[in-house]
Design brief:
This protein is mostly helical. The chain is about 70% helix and about 0% strand. The strands form 2 sheets. It has a two-stranded antiparallel sheet with strand order 1-2. Strands 3-4 form a two-stranded antiparallel sheet. It starts with 20 loop residues before the first helix and ends in a 7-residue tail after the last helix.
């Protein structure tokens, strides 16, 4: 037993026992799990059935690992110290998500998140017991780093135009390969081409790279063998280049803060080594940055094998040189450095000055790159990103908007939250302007929205306690124990810090890394005994292991079934492209999926469409009744799902229930208040139903529909006016304007009410140059007719319309001469 460090009855955090066959089974399973998961688009929880199946398979595998783990470390589960208590309290996280299902904005997304949270709990528990063993700890750390290095090099395969090669390497186990290539391993947006590797999202890849950069620095500075120095030193250049090629401004902004935190945890000798390696690798990366960037952009546009080979030579030779330098530093400089600063290390606050000085120097360099001509040394696409780092840029303003809107949602569900995926399901009802983002771009705000203040406090206290205990123990323990689990601290703090600015933890793989990191940190905590535990160890162990075991089995089989359901819906989507597909084929797949998850949103919409077609073709009321029951049940569980509401509107209209259809349209408007297409649908129906009432001489109904339509139109005008108040630099997002369809519907309403001048004013807003489009042609026709009623004309529009269609002359005259006797 180790000597006490603090507290009472301190036990060694690393507890090696006899390693049997099950030990190796659990380790091998976890290795394969960590190698497989990132290549499934990092298990992105994109709130779509197309992303679900690999997530459910991952949950299933985690449940199996948990069961095997319980068999392996059953005797370690004593629940007599604080580590065991933490392993028990992790259950509160999935339980808080289960409670949040009570008022879930989307039952489907909420259930998915409950399963994901249970997976995190299984990974955490496995980590907290497995990683006490020195061999397991070493194996898992090697696996994490090896997987990270594979991901980095896979990114360069795609950057150098060799996507088909990358696809061939991983297609046999990856869900991300389509048409022979890994989808969007490099992506183009308004900023240009960005490196994303397995993540399909540059900012999350940047967060991952930042964590692995610090992990590589930690390994190259602490390990003693020449091959460790070569490997980890070699990978510094590819990681730094990849980080820059993501074009992630958030990564560049967060990196210095995380570096400062980590440096403060190190001894001065280690701090100096980190800085030396960063300077050397950074300088080497800067030397080849321009050619590597330009070659990548060249071969992405048109593949050139010679150019790609040249790019590889730049990366590999430069990395090899840095790796060899790392060997020399580890062999000759590091030992002398340890001895040379020994006196400094003993001084108070000795670990503070270098990190602060480095942060200041780093900040000055960043400011110089942003604000001076030094940025001209960078490639054009990267230089533009540096120039745009400021608090008035669109992405920063948008993020603050997301956060304010998330708080609006939280205020409606303050205590227990709106369930997993709440923001993605309901953001349109709370958004400040018509942006499109199903992610809050801040993990902590998103967590608060999903589980409310109670669940959020549970999470913060849980994670905070682990960090507190780990850091306290780290400070007071010896060098070997400090370093044994510090990699997990690096990973957890790096990803969580970056998640203040982005939705990294919507990638379930990143969540796995965080909770494995937390488990590794917790396994290194001191084993202080629990003071108030009264039950016998055997009883406690039996209850705990049984509870977790049953939960793992239930979650495993549930995930298997859900994976089958998601697979069936994917098959339905594929079948929809087959013109020869039969009703029976569709129905079999949909019935199978909905027998597992009765309110599966996409499944409900597909089946409703099928039943609607049956109603149209046969007029059989059984189709209507079955469809209505299906939609009502789904709408109750998915109140914000727009596609389900649209299907309900269509069904009501087919059954002649126009009033119900229109009321549903109008009443649902607040849920989609920045969706201009929704307003088009409402206003079209307002005119159609009002005109129908006019023809049947139902004046009350006519005025009802027309007035509601004009009220909705005023909401559009108010929204347009509000968008003019957005801060300069913030983009409004989707189009929100008086579209031709809106102008036509409102213009016709005004004409029928005898408000000819107002009709002309509205219709003018909807005029378009393309008069081959029927709607655009109608807008011009009614606009000219409204002017003619007022004794006016717009000759330019008239000439253009007549040139497009000479028959329009008679139609304009017919409308202008028409009178509406019931117009008010």
């Amino acid at each position: 037993m180790a000597n006490p460090v603090y507290g009472k009855q301190f036990k060694a955090s690393t507890e090696d026992e006899k390693r049997n066959g099950m030990f190796w089974v659990v380790n091998i399973c976890l290795i394969l799990f960590l190698l497989w998961t990132p290549f499934q688009v990092a298990l992105f929880n994109g709130l779509s059935y197309s992303f679900e199946k690999p997530i459910f398979w991952a949950i299933l595998l985690s449940g199996i690992i948990m069961v095997l783990g319980l068999i392996q470390f059953y005797k370690k589960v004593k629940l007599d110290d604080q580590r065991d208590m933490i392993a028990l309290l992790i259950i509160l996280l999935p339980l808080s998500y289960m409670i949040s299902m009570i008022g879930a904005a989307s039952w489907h997304y909420a259930v998915n998140m409950v399963l994901i949270q249970w997976m995190y709990a299984f990974i955490f528990i496995t980590g907290i017991y497995m990683l006490r063993d020195r061999m397991s700890n070493k194996i898992i750390q090697m696996t994490i780093m090896g997987s990270a290095y594979i991901i980095v090099m896979f990114g360069f395969i795609n950057w150098f135009g060799q996507a088909p090669l990358g696809g061939k390497l991983v297609f046999w186990f990856s869900n991300g390969v389509q048409n022979g290539s890994y989808v969007d391993a490099i992506m183009q947006d308004s900023n240009g081409w960005r490196l994303t590797s397995v993540f399909q999202y540059a900012n999350t890849y940047a967060a991952f790279l930042m964590a692995m950069l610090f992990a590589a620095l930690f390994n190259v500075s602490r390990l003693k063998t020449w091959y460790d120095h070569l490997l980890h030193g070699f990978m510094l250049v590819p990681i730094i280049l990849s980080l820059i090629l993501t074009l992630s401004r958030g990564g560049l902004v967060v990196l210095p803060f995380v570096l400062l935190i980590l440096l403060l945890m190190l001894r001065p000798a280690q701090q100096i080594l980190w800085i030396i390696y960063m300077v050397i690798a950074g300088a080497a990366s800067a030397i080849i940055l321009n050619p590597v960037t330009n070659i990548g952009l060249q071969v992405i546009a048109k593949y050139d094998g010679v150019a790609a080979a040249k790019g590889w030579v730049y990366v590999l030779i430069t990395s090899l040189i840095v790796g060899l330098i790392a060997i020399a530093i580890g062999r000759f400089i590091a030992p002398k450095l340890e001895n040379g600063v020994e006196g400094w290390t003993a001084r108070r606050f000795s670990s503070v000055w270098l990190p602060i000085g480095s942060a200041v120097i780093g900040g000055v360099m960043l400011l110089l790159l942003i604000g001076t001509s030094l940025r001209n040394l960078l490639p054009a696409n990267i230089r533009v990103r540096f120039e745009n780092i400021n608090f008035q840029q669109s992405s920063v303003l948008e993020r603050f908007t997301f956060y304010r809107d998330a708080l609006k949602l939280w205020k409606d569900y303050p205590f227990f939250g709106a369930g997993g995926g709440a923001w993605g399901a309901s953001f349109q009802a709370y958004q400040n302007n018509p942006y499109v983002s199903r992610q809050v771009h801040n993990f902590f705000f998103q967590y608060l929205v999903e589980v409310g203040i109670i669940g959020f406090l549970i999470f913060v206290l849980f994670v905070g306690f682990i960090f507190y205990k780990y850091i306290r123990g780290y400070i007071k323990t010896d060098k070997e124990k400090r370093e044994s689990h510090f990699l997990y601290f690096i990973i957890a703090v790096s990803i969580l810090m970056h998640s203040l600015l982005d939705f990294n933890l919507s990638y379930v793989y990143m969540g796995i890394l965080v909770f494995l990191g937390l488990g590794g940190m917790a396994s290194a905590m001191d084993a202080q005994p629990l003071k108030y535990l009264k039950l016998g160890a055997g009883t406690i162990r039996g209850i705990y292991v049984s509870l977790i075991g049953v939960a793992a089995i239930i979650i495993t089989f549930t995930s298997l079934r859900f994976a089958q359901a998601s697979g069936d819906i994917k098959d339905v989507a594929k079948l929809s492209t087959n013109q020869n597909a039969t009703y029976e084929q569709y129905r079999k797949l949909l019935d199978d999926a909905l027998s597992i998850r009765s309110t599966f949103p996409e499944g409900v919409v597909y089946l409703s469409s099928l039943l609607t077609q049956g109603l149209q073709q046969t007029k059989n009321k059984d189709f209507y009744n079955q469809d209505l029951a299906l939609l009502n049940k789904a709408h109750e569980k998915e109140p914000y799902n727009q596609d389900i509401v649209k299907q309900m509107v269509t069904l009501y209209q087919l059954n002649g229930e126009d009033d119900q259809a229109f009321d549903l349209l109008v009443n649902s408007t607040p849920k989609y208040k920045w969706d201009i297409n929704w307003y088009e649908g409402v206003l079209t129906q307002a005119y159609v139903l009002g005109n129908k009432a006019y023809e049947s001489k139902d004046t009350a109904a006519e005025q009802k529909y027309f007035q509601q339509g004009l009220n909705v139109y005023q909401q559009v005008l108010d929204g347009i006016q509000y968008l003019t108040t957005l801060p300069e630099g913030q983009l409004q997002g989707r189009d929100f304007s008086v579209t031709p369809k809106i102008a036509l519907s409102v213009g016709e309403i005004y004409l029928m009410q005898g408000e000819n001048a107002q009709a002309a004013e509205v219709l003018k807003k909807g005029l378009q140059d393309d008069l081959t489009d029927d709607t655009n042609k109608q807008v011009a026709r009614y606009y000219l007719a409204a002017l003619k009623k007022e004794g006016q004309n717009d000759q330019a529009v008239y000439d253009k319309l007549i040139a497009a269609d000479p028959k329009e002359k008679e139609q304009i005259a017919a409308i202008a001469n028409k009178t509406y006797t019931q117009a008010k």
